[in-house]
Inverse folding.
């Protein structure tokens, strides 16, 4: 089974795996991105079914400046046919005399996420920004929350705007399991600028897009740990946004 290094952003699938390792001291993020997004292509060939590896870098949020190594595939069966554990090991991604362990402290650290209610999406977006919101779901309401995502959240906000989708994932293995994230899947930096321009207030089109979903947001709040989400009145996507978030760009 081979992987594909993808150079034009990422198509989100049912499986998203992220490296949870820090870079080694004195390693430059740009050098690591160049290794993954260019040099690794020489080794990584197109596979069937396709599996993708990308390096994103945070430009906004709590983890600004960090590099995020991301593996994705459309179906869980493709992941399961590949391997268990981390897909970021040296034997998978070494290329041009370099290897992941030259850049990251631990190639075996990862978290694997699965899209909740994947059948609610007829197509999956191609994105240039991974806006990851680390949401905190009440433990006693986890099962109810997942049903709420399938029945209400994804049908309503999964395609909230043509260039932005809210997609809810559950961590099923690795360092952060069990937990949940919301991915604000945005097609490009230009698309994000239409809604959250740098150094300026959020825009009216964003507020207009989320206004019809205000009642749903209040219902969402009942599943989340109080104080972990953006309060009503502090943003057009209040409650949908976590207080712990980072935007990663390709």
């Amino acid at each position: 089974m081979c992987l594909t290094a993808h150079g034009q952003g990422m198509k989100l699938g049912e499986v998203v795996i992220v490296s949870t390792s820090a870079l080694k001291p004195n390693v430059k993020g740009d050098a690591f991105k160049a290794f993954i997004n260019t040099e690794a292509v020489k080794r990584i060939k197109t596979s069937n079914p396709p599996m993708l590896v990308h390096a994103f870098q945070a430009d906004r949020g709590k983890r600004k400046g960090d590099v995020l190594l991301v593996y994705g595939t459309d179906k869980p069966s493709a992941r399961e046919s590949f391997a268990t554990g981390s897909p970021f090991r040296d034997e998978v991604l070494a290329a041009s005399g370099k290897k992941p362990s030259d850049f990251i402290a631990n190639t075996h650290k990862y978290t694997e996420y699965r899209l909740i209610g994947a059948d609610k999406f007829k197509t999956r977006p191609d994105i240039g920004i991974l806006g990851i919101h680390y949401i905190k779901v009440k433990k006693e309401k986890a099962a109810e929350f997942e049903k709420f995502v399938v029945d209400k959240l994804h049908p309503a906000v999964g395609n909230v705007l043509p260039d932005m989708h809210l997609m809810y994932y559950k961590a099923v293995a690795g360092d952060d399991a069990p937990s949940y994230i919301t991915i604000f899947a945005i097609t490009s930096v230009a698309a994000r600028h239409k809604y959250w321009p740098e150094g300026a207030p959020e825009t009216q089109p964003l507020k207009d897009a989320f206004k019809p979903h205000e009642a749903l947001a209040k219902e969402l709040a009942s599943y989340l740990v109080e104080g972990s989400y953006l309060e009503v009145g502090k943003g057009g996507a209040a409650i949908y946004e976590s207080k712990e978030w980072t935007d990663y760009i390709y």
Remarks:
- The mean pLDDT is 89.
- Helices lie at 29-37, 76-82, 90-93, 142-157, 189-195, 204-210, 214-221.
